[in-house]
Write a structure and sequence with these properties.
This protein is mostly helical. The protein has one domain (2-66). It is built from 3 helices and no strands. The protein starts with a helix and ends with a helix. Keywords: Membrane, Transmembrane, Transmembrane helix. This is Membrane protein. Residues 1-29 are annotated as: Disordered. The chain crosses the membrane at residues 32-52.
Length: 68
Amino acid sequence: MADTASRTLVRTRGHGASATPGAGPSGHRHPLVATAMVLPLAAFLVVAFGGWEAVVTHASSVGVMLGR
């Protein structure tokens, strides 16, 4: 059992940063790529759960607290 953990670790390290689409040589994804990946899901969640009203309500209450 203990030997399987070390083999899994070796296999995981074998896949370099190039296995991630949009990632650079250091393994970090460009912010625009990350944004493009997240926006469709965020838009779906806003429409599906009525999040737009919640965002507007929250922003309004924060604006009132700040005196704007």
